[in-house]
Specification:
This protein is an alpha+beta fold. It folds into three domains: about 130 residues, Rossmann fold, CATH 3.40.50.2300; about 220 residues, Phosphatase 2c, domain 1 (4-Layer Sandwich), CATH 3.60.40; about 160 residues, Heat Shock Protein 90 (2-Layer Sandwich), CATH 3.30.565.10. It has 16 helices and 20 strands. The strands form four sheets. It has a five-stranded parallel β-sheet, sandwiched between helices. The chain has a five-stranded antiparallel β-sheet with strand order 6-15-14-11-12. Strands 7-8-9-10-13 form a five-stranded antiparallel β-sheet. Helix 5 packs parallel to helix 7, helix 10 packs across helix 11 and helix 13 packs antiparallel against helix 14. The longest helix has about 50 residues. It is elongated. The termini are far apart.
Length: about 575
C-alpha cells in the first residue's frame, strides 16, 4: 500500500518558551503544523476542543505534570488513538516505565538529538497515515454496510410483495425457498386465469442474492398480468423473454419453468427453459410424466429466435405436480456429495400422498447437514384435482347496483388475426372495463374460450377431437393444430356480444360464427363429468354456465345466453 505524505497537526507541550520555539520550528520545517501549550492544563483543554494528530509531552511541568496530563488525555480520547511522545531530561528506567504505563507511546531524551527526533516523528507520521487510511476504509465500509442494509430492506419488501400473492397462499400450493444469501435468486409465482386454469412459475435468476432476484423481477408483473387476462403460458413465455432480452444487462438471464393446469380438460402444459425436469406424481407414487428442459433460459435468445411451444400431458386422476431449482440437486453434503438428479424422484416414489413435500424437504435438509448452501434451493408442489371435479367460481353477491344496458359489440377476426392474436384474452380485457360485466368476466372468459376455440379448431382448421384419445394424443393434436394454423390463409370468426332480455331476465347474448363448413353438433357431450371423456368437457361447462346454448343446423354458428341480471 503506497501512502501519500500527509501534514500533521502536532501539539507541543513544554513550560520552557525556548523549547517550544525550537521544537515548533523543526516541526514546521518537516512540513507539519505545530501548536503550543505551556502547561498540562492547557494541553488538556486544547485536546478536548480540537484534538491534534500527535503530541510531544514534556514530563516535568508545574501544576498538572506530563504523566497526569497523558492519563487524562487518554481518558478524554475515548478510544481514539493519538500518538504521545514523552520528552524528559531524565532517562531512568522507572520514569520511562511510568510514562509508558500512563499512556505514552515513546520517549525522547533532552537535550534532543535532531536526527532521532525527526526519525521518530516520521515513524509516527507513517502510523498516523496508516490509521487515517484504516479509518477512511472503515467509514467506507460502514457506509457500504448502511447502503447494503437499505437495499436489503427494499429487497425484502419486494420479495414479500412478489411472494405474498393470493395464488401462493392457496392451500393446494406448497412451496419452500432456502436462499444461499440474504435474498433468493429463485422466485416462485402462482395465479389463476379467468377460466380457472392454474398457472405456476419457478424462476432461477443467474447468480445469487438481490442481483439474481432483480433479474427475475420483471418476469413477475408480466406473469401475473397476462395470467389474469387468460393468456396461455406459451404466450407468457414469449412476452417474458422479450422483456428480459430487451431490458436486462448483457449476460443476465433466468432459467424459468412455466406450468398450466386446466382442471376442466385435464391437461397440463409445461414450458421449461433451463430448470431440472418438473414431474407429475400419481396417487400410487408412480412418476406419470417428466418435462425435460427443451429450451434455453429466458433472456438469451432474441424474440425472433425464441420458441414458445409447450409440452402437454393429459391426466385422468388426482395427482401432484413438483417443480424445483438446480440448487436442490446440486446441494452438497458435508463430504462434498451432491444430492443428485435422480434422488428427488426416488424420494417422491417412496412416499405417499401429502407427505411427499415434507419428505423431500427433510431429505435435502438431512443431506445438507451443516454444509453451506452453494445455491438457492426452491421447491413447489401443486395438488392437481381430478379433471372436472370442481365447480365454476361463484359470482359475487349482487346488491342491486344500477348497470348499463343496450351494450352491443361486434368483432371479426380473419386468418391473419387468428394466427398472431390471442382473441379471448383481448376480449376479456375489454369486458373487464365495462360496468356491470366486470364481476362476470371469469365466466364470460370460459364461454368465449370454448366457443372461439371450437370455431377455430373444428370450424376453420377441421381438427378431429378423437385424435386426443390416441397415445400422446394431446401432443399430436396440438402439433396438427400448429401446422394447420400456420397454413391457414383464409376464413374468419365473427363474435357478437349484446345485452338483451330473455324470459324476463337481463342476459348477455354471445354469438360466435365461423366461415367453416360446421360440425356434427349431435356428438356434443351432455354432462360435465363424463368418465374417461378426453374431449368435449368445455362444451358441457358452457352449457352449465349459460341459460341456453343453441347451435345452427350446420354447427358453424352458436349462441349462448348468459344471465347478467342483478
Amino acid at each position: 500500500m503506497n501512502l501519500l505524505p500527509c501534514s500533521l497537526r502536532i501539539l507541543v507541550v513544554d513550560d520552557t518558551p525556548t523549547n517550544l520555539q525550537f521544537i515548533s520550528h523543526v516541526i514546521q520545517r518537516m512540513g507539519h503544523v505545530p501548536v503550543s501549550a505551556s502547561s498540562g492544563e492547557q494541553a488538556l483543554e486544547m485536546f478536548q476542543s480540537d484534538p491534534p494528530d500527535m503530541i510531544l509531552m514534556d514530563v516535568m511541568m508545574p501544576g498538572i505534570g506530563g504523566l497526569e496530563a497523558t492519563r487524562r488525555i487518554r481518558t478524554a480520547a475515548a478510544g481514539r488513538w493519538v500518538p504521545i511522545i514523552m520528552v524528559t531530561a531524565c532517562g531512568q528506567e522507572d520514569e520511562i516505565v511510568a510514562g509508558l504505563n500512563a499512556g505514552a507511546d515513546d520517549y525522547l531524551l533532552k537535550p534532543l538529538s535532531l536526527n532521532i527526533f525527526q526519525a521518530k516523528v516520521r515513524v509516527f507520521e507513517r502510523i498516523v497515515r496508516l490509521q487515517r487510511e484504516i479509518t477512511q476504509r472503515s467509514e467506507e465500509l460502514d457506509a457500504y454496510y448502511q447502503q447494503a442494509e437499505e437495499e436489503r430492506r427494499i429487497g425484502a419488501w419486494l420479495m414479500e410483495y412478489m411472494i405474498n400473492r393470493p395464488g401462493l397462499l392457496d392451500p393446494e400450493v406448497r412451496y419452500s425457498i432456502t436462499p444461499a444469501w440474504h435474498f433468493s435468486g429463485d422466485l416462485l409465482a402462482a395465479a389463476q386465469t379467468p377460466g380457472q386454469s392454474r398457472h405456476v412459475m419457478l424462476s432461477d435468476g443467474m447468480g445469487h442474492g438481490l442481483p439474481a432476484a432483480i433479474t427475475s423481477l420483471p418476469l413477475f408483473d408480466t406473469f401475473y398480468a397476462m395470467t389474469e387476462l387468460g393468456y396461455g403460458i406459451g404466450r407468457i413465455a414469449e412476452a417474458m423473454n422479450s422483456r428480459l432480452h430487451d431490458m436486462s444487462p448483457r449476460g443476465r438471464f433466468a432459467a424459468v419453468t412455466l406450468a398450466s393446469i386446466n382442471p376442466w380438460t385435464g391437461v397440463i402444459e409445461v414450458w421449461n427453459g433451463g430448470n431440472p425436469p418438473p414431474c407429475l406424481v400419481g396417487a400410487n407414487s408412480e412418476i406419470l410424466k417428466r418435462w425435460a428442459s427443451k429450451y434455453l433460459p429466458l433472456g438469451i435468445l432474441s424474440p425472433e429466435a425464441f420458441c414458445s411451444e409447450t409440452e402437454v400431458y393429459s391426466y385422468k386422476d388426482a395427482c401432484q405436480l413438483f417443480l424445483w431449482s438446480d440448487g436442490l440437486i446440486e446441494q452438497e453434503s458435508e463430504k462434498g456429495e451432491s444430492f443428485g438428479i435422480e434422488r428427488p424422484y426416488e424420494f417422491l416414489q417412496e412416499t405417499a400422498g401429502d407427505g411427499r413435500f415434507d419428505a423431500l424437504l427433510q431429505a435435502i435438509g438431512s443431506h445438507r447437514g451443516d454444509a453451506v448452501a452453494a445455491d438457492d434451493i426452491s421447491l413447489m408442489m401443486v395438488t392437481v384435482r381430478q379433471p372436472g371435479g370442481m365447480e365454476p367460481a361463484a359470482l359475487p353477491v349482487s346488491h342491486g347496483e344500477s348497470r348499463r344496458t343496450g351494450l352491443r359489440m361486434s368483432f371479426r377476426f380473419d386468418a391473419h388475426d387468428l394466427k398472431y392474436l390471442d382473441v379471448v384474452p383481448t376480449l376479456t380485457g375489454l369486458v373487464e372495463k365495462i360496468d356491470g360485466l366486470r364481476d362476470h368476466s371469469g365466466h364470460i372468459f370460459m364461454i368465449l374460450a370454448e366457443l372461439v376455440g371450437n370455431a377455430l379448431d373444428h370450424g376453420l382448421l377441421r381438427l378431429d377431437s378423437s385424435l386426443k384419445t390416441l397415445p400422446d394424443g394431446f401432443s399430436r393434436y396440438l402439433e396438427e393444430r400448429r401446422q394447420r394454423l400456420e397454413a391457414l390463409d383464409n376464413g374468419y370468426i365473427q363474435i357478437d356480444i349484446e345485452e338483451t332480455g330473455r324470459n324476463g331476465r337481463d342476459v348477455l347474448k354471445i354469438k360466435v360464427l365461423d366461415s367453416g363448413d360446421g360440425f356434427d353438433k349431435t356428438r356434443l357431450p351432455h354432462r360435465m363429468n363424463d368418465a374417461g371423456q378426453l374431449y368435449g368437457r368445455g362444451v358441457a361447462l358452457v352449457q352449465q354456465l349459460g341459460l341456453d346454448m343453441q347451435y345452427s343446423e350446420t354447427g358453424n354458428e352458436v349462441r349462448v345466453y348468459y344471465d347478467v341480471g342483478s
